[in-house]
Amino acid sequence: MLRPRQELIGLNTYEIASYPQNWDMKLDSNENYIGPSTSVIKAIKNIAPEEIAQYPYYGSFYDALSEIYGVKKSNIVITNGADEALCAVINTYISKADSVVTASPSFSMPKIYTSIAGAEYIEVPYKEKWVYPFEDIINSVSENTKVILITSPNNPTGDIVPLEQIIEILRKFPDKAVVIDETYSSYAGISNVCLTDKYDNLIVVKSFSKDYALAGLRLGCIVSNQVNIDNIKRVLSPYNVNSIAVAAANAAINDKKYIKLVKDEITQSRKYLYDEIKKLGFTPYESYANFILADFGNLCELIYEKLKSNRISVKSFDKAHVLGNCLRITVPTLSAAYKIIDIIKSKNTLVFDMDGVLVDVKRSYYEAVKYTYNYFTGKELTDEEIIEARKLGGLNNDWDLTYHLIKKYGFNFSYDDIVSVFQKHYWNDGNGSINNEKLFIDKKLLEILKSKYNLTIFTGRPRDEAFYTLKKFDILDYFEKIVTMDDLPSDKQKPHTEGLRLIRSAMITDELIYFGDTVDDMICASDFGAYGVGVLNGNNNDDNMDKALINAGAKKVLNSINDLVEVLEKTDESSINMSQNQ
Question: CA nearest 220: which of 204, 205, 229, 207?
């Protein structure tokens, strides 16, 4: 078997997704959320066949960059993304005995490139969040140091390195390559390119991914004095940038109105996110980039999952990492930022039992109860007898209820046998009476509720059966948390309060409002301290059930789940203010 170079053994690769995922907002990689200008798309569409068939020409693009950066063309070299630029610099200046000094946390790829070169990568931690550790950087530079890497604005912290500190580093270490990664500098409105004329040891790396929205085309560049550029070119492949990327970039940098629009929108949205996250009691950090880093404390994982369940991807970090309680959020448009904050805000949580509340089970569970009862007793069972048994409480699910009814009338069969017959009639691998169910709740109502509340389910069903029905009625995506039989230990099955505890722990919420149709549901709500609401649905004329639910702790009893607005009518933006005397 072939073995790679020693430096590659044990080296972790930078993992990337192979296929696009269906996010409503992809905010985990700091791409430009707004996208490229229409002039970019037009330029790509107008690519001539010969521009693809022939090797690319870069002259006109260098002309444009020279004008924008205010340097000679000989001071610029374009690269296949800023990644290739950083790799090229390290390959130019670093040997095995050398070291790179940089602040940490920061972008991970230079560490990989340095490891491949067999050199030492010295990471100087921030002592203060997030103030560049200038003195510690100075003290970490040794004779072996060949590159001092500065990322400004820094990813993932968002801070910038003060100009006076950059100049002092340049002056103090004239024999070290001071490399400044300016991938996000457009959003900060700063650049150190102007210093390349004055300091021979300065190398500036720039990208067209974040501001011009060309991440998919992979384009970056290096700006430095001509000697450095000529040396760096020795490690780059000829024609390393494709013709389409160059055509797109030419169009992008000439659309100055569009890039200003993008920057203005992101700046406004970034400020909104910062202010609102702070108001919610969390700790956002000032950012000069197109992302914001925020510390969400012990709610970090919860907020990450909440955003994920709303089809929003953000960057999370390993719990052992210094940023373990932080999320990095690419700044989207202002309207999209409104949605993010709305999702993060604390809301009341509506907890729905499935059977008899969301779903009409009279022709599924009821029929399975009757069938199983008849199978073991030879006798018929009525709906009324099932309803009366439900009033008793203590029957965790319809398996227990069926077992109770069979035993009540003097028959003694094993619980497992009863469950087996019941399941064959009801579930039967998705071919049973489960397909006779109908939806009680109006889907339009769910749509309205989701914008104001956390929607969850606490059901005694096994997971497969619960998800089968929710998918069948196309309502699965409305619910942020679903607790089923499979999610609870055997001694804490519904109606044990453990299910409500799991829901509360997974939500940013003020109050749980639990909608159930049985005595046990209301006892569970009362024991947990939730606001219990009884739901009759098919039992509208049963005064005894109404009273049984009230006696069990229901604060309100609804004839139909679609009447729940009556319970929620006194809501405001973030809390329910229901009278306990309703």
Answer: 207
Angle subtended at Cα 450 by Cα 448 and Cα 452, rounded to the nearest 5 degrees:
80
Mention every residue, 6+ apart, whose C-beta is less than 8 A from residue 288: 153, 158, 159, 160, 184, 187, 188, 190
Which helix (H) or strand (E) segment holds residue 204: the answer is strand 202-207
Cβ contact 466:484 at 8 Å: yes
- The single-letter DSSP state of residue 577 is -
Give pLDDT tens digits for 218-260: 999 999 999 999 999 999 999 999 999 999 999 999 999 999 9
- pLDDT (0 to 100) of residue 366: 86
What is the phi-psi region of residue 10: left when phi exceeds 0, alpha when psi lies from -120 to 50, beta otherwise? left
* Predicted local confidence at residue 543, as pLDDT: 66
Structure tokens that stand for 482 in this block: 């679903």
Q: Are 218 and 40 in contact (CB under 8 A)?
A: no
Q: What does each C-alpha distance from 405 to 388, 411, 433, 434 come to in angstroms?
A: 10, 9, 20, 21
Question: Shortest CA distance to 531 belongs to which of 347, 349, 396, 393?
Answer: 349
Residues paired with 99 in a beta bridge:
120, 145
Residue 302, CA distances (Å) to 43, 299, 343, 507 in order: 43, 5, 12, 7
Higher pLDDT, 300 or 544: 300
**Cis peptide bond N-terminal to 399, omega within 30:** no
- Contact by Cβ (8 Å): 536, 560: yes
Predicted confidence at residue 541, as pLDDT, reads 52
pLDDT at 383 over 90: no
454 - beta bridge partners? 349
* In contact, 116 and 7? CB cutoff 8 Å: yes
166-208 tens-digit pLDDT: 999 999 999 999 999 999 999 999 999 999 999 999 999 999 9
Interval 51-67 mean pLDDT: 96
